[in-house]
Structures are given as C-alpha cells and as structure tokens.
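User: Let's play a game. I give you a shape written as tokens, and you guess the letters that built it. Ready? Here's round one.
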C-alpha cells in the first residue's frame, strides 16, 4: 500500500505531504520520524483529524496508551463520522486493560454509520472483549455475525472457537479450528488469549454475576453549547454527538424507537434547512456551506403523513471550516492516510494464539498427541504466550515424555559388559548419513544420531530411515547454536523445536540431548531437565584428533574407547568418513557390541535401560 502514496503536487497551506511522509515512515517502522511529520501537520492544521490520528497510532505502537487515548478522543471530536477515533480508542483501552471502556466504544461505533468492513472489524473487537469478560454467548453471537459476511476473518474465527471451548462444546470447537488461521497483517495490535484474563476467571466462577461497566467519563465540551441539546427517548440524534467539531460535510444518523410512524425527517443546521430523509434507518449527509464557524444547533424534526411534527431532537456542534475548502489533492492525501492508519488500529490474534487454542481443544478431548503438535507450533512462534509453557509441559507428560524432572547427564553406559555407544552428531546429511547407515549395517552395529532440527526439516526421509533401520535419534538443538548466550525462553524454544521436528519426521519423542559443541552451563542444564531431556556427553571424541592423518585418528580413538564408553563421531565431512569403516571392523574384532544409548532417563531400572539399548 505504501508504494502508491504519491503526492500529485503541493498546494499552498496543504498538510498532505506531511501526512503521506508520516505514513511512509510509519510503514518502515521509523516511529520517531513518523511522529515528527504528523506533529508538524497537526501544528499547521489543528483541525486535521488524520494528523492527530497519526500521532495516536505512533503513541499506541510505542505503548504510550494514556496519550493514545487523549489523541483518539480528539480525533473522535474532530471527525465524528470517521471510524479512526473509535478504533483507536478500543485499541488504546485494550492496551490499558480497560475492557469495559473498549466495550462501550464498540457499542457506540456500531450505532454509527460504518462501512461493511468497518462494521466487521468493530464487531470482531466487541466479540473479543466480550469473551475476555466471560460473556461467551454474546461473544459467539457477535463472532458469528462477522463470519456470516467474512468467513475467514482471523479475530472472529479465534473468538468463535474460544467461546465454543469455554462452553465445553468440544466437537464444535474442533470443527471451528480445523482450518489454519491467516497470519496477522502488517500493523494491527496483537492481542493475547481471551480465555485467560483475570476478569474471565471471575465470570466463569460467578456465571450469574452482573458485569457492571464503570460510569462513563464524559469529556469536557467546548464552552458555549448550553441549551442546544435536546433528545427524546424514542427519537434522538446518534451522530454527530453533542459537542463534536464538524467542517465541510456532516453525516447525520437518527435512532427511532417504538412505534412512531414517521413519514420523513427534516434536518436544520443553525436554523437553515440542509436536508431531508424519508427512508429508515434515517441518515443523510449535510453540508455546512453558508453556515458560520462556532456553535450551531443541528436539529431534526420528524413529520407524520399530515405534515405535523411528531418529535424533535437536537445536538450542538462546533462548525470549524476556517473559510477554507480542501483541494482534491488534500482530500486524496487525507483519505490515503486514513486507509494506511486503520489497519494499525485493528485487534489481531498474536502469532501462536490459534495453535495454543487448538491444542486446548484437543487436550480437553483427550487427544494428547494432537495437543502436543499444536502446543509445539505455538511455542515455536511465541513461547511467551500466557499459560502455553505449562500446557505444553503437561501435554508432554500425558504422552509419556518425563518433563519437569531434575537435570541429569549421561557420560558413559556404566558396567554393561563389552558394549560401546557410537553417536553421530550434526545430521541428517544427504550424502554422509546413508553412507554411515550402510556401514553400520555391515557389522550389525546400532548407534545414536544426534540430529539438528533444521536439518531434519530439510531431510525428513533420512530421519525416518535412521529409525527404520533400528537406530536411536536424539536432539542436537534446532539451529546448532551455542545456547549459553541465549535468553532462557530461547534455549527452551531450541529444545522444543528440535523435538517437534524429529517427531514430525520420525514419529518418536526424543529424550536425549547433546548441546552443540558441548557448550553447557547451568541455564542450559536446567532447561534440558525441565523439558525431559538427559544431556549426553562422551568419553571419546573424534574432534580431539581434528586435522590428523587417518591412521592417527583411528588409533587415537581406539585407545580412548573403553567398555561402557560413549564415542562422538559426526555426520559431516570430517575425519569420520576417513576412518569409520576400519574403526567399525576393529571394534567388532575386539569383541565390542555397538549399541544405541538408553532412551529412558536416569531413575529407570538398569534392566529397562539395557532393554532399550538392545544390551
């Protein structure tokens, strides 16, 4: 969209170039520069709602929610017929945690004159906030209204599935989450899980409790509007609101209740007739041409078939034209600015939120393997999502992965006879791994392959082949980075993501882990224990002889290998390729049995571990 923001030529006194420059900077993520352009436009024209909306959007993205509220309140007053003010207020109140204020704004917006797309976005936001309040029936109904018009709307789909899960309609929730969710578009405020808000818990535990919104705070109105407001219970002006500032055109919307038989409505501005409507719902756009600046009364008279006035409603508006007419270029720039800003104000599901919800649906139905799949996908996208970490750890336990254990390490097999564990790091490799497997088969050896998750994603068939041919697979992280400098959640993400990749390819949940390069500290140690891994080291390492002649490497390793030992080799193009065939033959001649590592964590019986290893 930003690529088409071209300015056809400057106009005297125009703020259009500044608005479009602000949009360009916003799209590049240069928030300070964008704020400078929008501020300059607003200083030049303090009645430019788009400039103030740009400032509000920047403050929202910077997390300055209070200032964003003030900005979008000003936008709503400057341009009551625009949805920017209301959408911005909903987003800002969500950031502040004031869901009740957001619900009130959504309700007010839906009474106004919105386009079909705007109606869908506001209704989806309303549904989300209702779900956070535990109002699942209302949230489901609102989400369904959106999906009837836009079946793929991401937030509405998410709210529908969440509400169904909360109502324990598990089959319906599963059907609602069957198809993937579209990822978030550029911009937009990413929202967290609507089922885990504190007020949602209250509503769940007190299903009959009345959720009472706090009193509405009325913004101070400009002075001079006393006596201009008059509304009837069954006939009122809902847009513009009393005290709004208007310029050239004003969209008027009327609310009729009860059984009033109205034939037509006449609208007057400052005692000047400006328009009429004879179709319900009554609404029309009127012009302020010929009307002076300042407070004016906007009045609507409802007539019956005989020409009698049935009802009258009025609000006070501040006309602020400044005796100017916007050029077509200026109008174009302001419209383009509105189109650029609006997506930044929409509520969108956080990455991973959909998969987390889907995992909850499967877990509730006892489909724990499917729950693990979705929880892992969510964790890979956003490990910081509320409750996700605990849900995944619990689901792993339900499929037999011993998570939440104390850290444990394995350095050698122990007293298990003339056995040695051969281990191969860094695979799968498209050329070397099949070659290794063939040589192991020739001597009847079984081994353990510590696989790198991203390599598994590239060559899943090779990972399956390793398991099919009777070998054990294990984790060597996902990206093969030194994990010590990583934040704690990123270390955990490496462990989860590698396990997920290996299970997708080979059908097993791995419980053995070797840190890349052997780099290990207390944080990595604790994380591996938490996620159900035993960390594996070695007693003989081919890297100790890197760069040496093949005969020297082989004799060195043979000297290091002892019964019960663990030998570290590689899938990569290093000395492993040069010495493996002779090494295997020599080990066999010396009576060694080459076995995989035990896959159970320490604490299992020795007999069970030996059975897993084929000893």
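Assistant: Ready! My guess for every position:
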């Amino acid at each position: 969209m930003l690529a088409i923001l071209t300015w056809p030529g400057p106009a005297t006194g125009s703020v259009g170039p500044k608005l479009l420059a602000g949009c360009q900077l916003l799209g590049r993520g240069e928030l300070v520069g964008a704020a400078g352009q929008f501020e300059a436009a607003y200083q030049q024209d303090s009645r430019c709602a788009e400039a103030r909306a740009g400032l509000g959007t920047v403050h929202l993205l910077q997390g300055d929610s209070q200032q964003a509220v003030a900005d979008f309140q000003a936008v709503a007053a400057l341009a009551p017929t625009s949805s920017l003010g209301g959408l911005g207020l909903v987003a800002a109140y969500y950031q502040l945690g004031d869901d009740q204020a957001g619900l009130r704004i959504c309700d007010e917006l839906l009474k106004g004159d919105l386009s079909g797309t705007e109606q869908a976005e506001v209704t989806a936001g309303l549904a989300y906030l209702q779900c956070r309040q535990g109002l699942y029936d209302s949230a489901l109904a609102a989400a369904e209204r959106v999906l009837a018009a836009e079946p793929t709307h991401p937030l509405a789909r998410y709210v529908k599935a969440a509400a169904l899960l909360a109502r324990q309609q598990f089959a319906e929730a599963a059907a609602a989450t069957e198809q993937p969710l579209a990822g978030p578009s550029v911009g937009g405020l990413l929202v967290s899980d609507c089922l885990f808000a504190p007020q949602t818990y209250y509503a769940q535990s007190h299903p009959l409790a009345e959720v009472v919104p706090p009193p509405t705070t009325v913004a101070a109105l400009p002075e001079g509007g006393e006596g201009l407001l008059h509304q009837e219970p069954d006939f009122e002006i809902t847009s513009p609101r009393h005290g709004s500032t208007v310029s050239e055109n004003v969209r008027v919307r009327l609310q009729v209740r009860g059984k009033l038989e109205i034939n037509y409505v006449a609208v007057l501005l400052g005692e000047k007739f400006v328009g009429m409507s004879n179709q319900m719902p009554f609404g029309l756009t009127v012009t302020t041409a010929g009307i002076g600046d300042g407070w004016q009364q906007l009045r609507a008279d409802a007539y019956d078939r005989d020409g009698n006035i049935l009802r009258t409603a009025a609000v006070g508006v501040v006309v602020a034209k400044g005796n100017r007419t916007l050029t077509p270029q200026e109008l174009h720039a302001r419209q383009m600015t509105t189109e650029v800003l609006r997506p930044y104000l929409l509520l969108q599901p956080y990455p991973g939120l959909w998969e987390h919800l889907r995992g909850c649906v499967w877990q509730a139905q006892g489909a724990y393997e499917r729950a693990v799949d979705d929880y892992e996908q969510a964790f890979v996208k956003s490990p910081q999502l509320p409750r996700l970490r605990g849900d995944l750890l619990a689901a792993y336990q339900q499929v037999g992965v011993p998570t939440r254990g104390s850290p444990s390490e394995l350095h050698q097999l122990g007293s298990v006879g003339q056995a040695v564990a051969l281990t191969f790091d860094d695979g799968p490799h498209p050329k070397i791994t099949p070659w290794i497997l063939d040589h192991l088969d020739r001597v009847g050896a079984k081994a353990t392959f510590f696989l790198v998750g991203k390599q598994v994603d590239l060559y899943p068939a090779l990972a399956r082949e390793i398991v099919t041919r009777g070998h054990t697979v294990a984790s060597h992280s996902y990206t093969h980075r030194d994990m010590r400098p990583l934040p704690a959640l990123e270390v955990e993400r490496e462990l989860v993501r590698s396990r997920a990749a290996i299970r997708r390819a080979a059908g097993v949940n791995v419980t053995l882990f070797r840190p890349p390069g052997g780099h290990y500290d207390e944080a990595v140690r604790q994380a591996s224990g938490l996620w159900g891994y035993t960390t594996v080291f070695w007693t003989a390492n081919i890297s100790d002889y890197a760069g040496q002649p093949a005969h020297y490497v082989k004799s060195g390793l043979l000297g290091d290998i002892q019964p019960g030992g663990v030998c570290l080799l590689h899938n990569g193009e290093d000395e492993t390729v040069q010495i493996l065939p002779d090494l295997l033959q020599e080990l066999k001649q010396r009576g060694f049995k080459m076995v995989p590592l035990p896959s159970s964590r320490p604490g299992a019986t020795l007999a069970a571990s030996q059975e897993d290893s084929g000893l």
